[in-house]
Design brief:
Length: about 170
């Protein structure tokens, strides 16, 4: 099953999603990422964060959705709602869900504050990916309606470390 993490620039959030998903995914599931208007480079803070988390960064690059290596079965848009950001809509038969995350590339402040924005985006994506991978995936592959419902639900979740609630 091919999962596409989609955003506009394909330099931060979608790369974080792709690399994290591939790090955690079971055999037969693979992520890719793309942008509708790719920047052409992966943000160095995204790469540094992934390396600190023990996730390989080899082979990840910013690319257009016109250059995908496979046809996605699932498309997860990760654009946030800040700064009037428009999230691209992938056209095709894939199951689509929105997992909005604020773009850390637009974070301002000290190095610590900017790093914190990248870590927040990573934590949200990792938490959602972990929730996704806990689903009965073999069963849900046969029930697109239920899978869509679950993906949409997961796209609203935040880790307790960001909500202040206890787990």
């Amino acid at each position: 099953m091919n999962v596409l993490f989609l955003c506009t620039g394909n330099s931060c959030r979608s790369i974080l999603g792709e690399a994290t998903f591939n790090h955690l995914a079971p055999p037969g599931w693979q992520a890719m990422s793309a942008g509708s208007k790719p920047t052409g480079k992966v943000h160095p803070r995204s790469l540094a964060l992934l390396e600190r988390e023990g996730i390989s960064t080899e082979g990840y690059f910013s690319k257009s959705w016109n250059d995908l290596p496979a046809i996605p079965d699932i498309v997860l848009s990760v654009c946030g709602n800040a700064a009037n950001e428009t999230c691209p809509a992938y056209l095709g038969p894939a199951l689509r869900s929105h997992w909005g995350v604020e773009d850390p590339a637009h974070a301002e402040g000290s190095d610590e504050e900017i790093d914190a924005a990248f870590m927040k985006a990573y934590r949200i994506l990792r938490y959602r990916i972990e929730q996704f991978l806990r689903l009965p995936l073999n069963e849900l592959q046969q029930d697109r309606g239920r899978l869509k419902t679950e993906l949409d639900r997961i796209g609203t979740l935040l880790p307790s470390s960001l909500t202040g609630e206890s787990a």
